[in-house]
Amino acid sequence: RLVPSDSALEVLATGAAYDLEFTVERTGGTAGCSVAYATADVSGSSDAITATSGTLEWADGDTAPKTITVSVLATADDNDSFTLTISGASSTASISIASGANVATVTFTA
Description:
Layout: E1 2-3, E2 8-12, E3 18-24, E4 26-27, E5 33-41, E6 53-58, E7 66-72, E8 81-87, E9 94-95, E10 103-109
């Protein structure tokens, strides 16, 4: 799951660039696994974040949390929002965002 454990997050549009960090926790199983992640613009404006995608990987026996960093641009404003989606878990381990959801929606506030 992604921590904080709320699938609808509000963050401040500060007029300055900064990073949001999402912690992904793996529960269940100890076999190696991986999961894909990607951000997507929801508001129709591509000036809120730097698009981010990749793969998180856990080796056999690794249960440590992993971090996804999303760079917020100085041009983000209170009309912007984006999603962070994880998908394609490669094992039976439970990897989810906020109470079992697979998508977190982030909205900027003034």
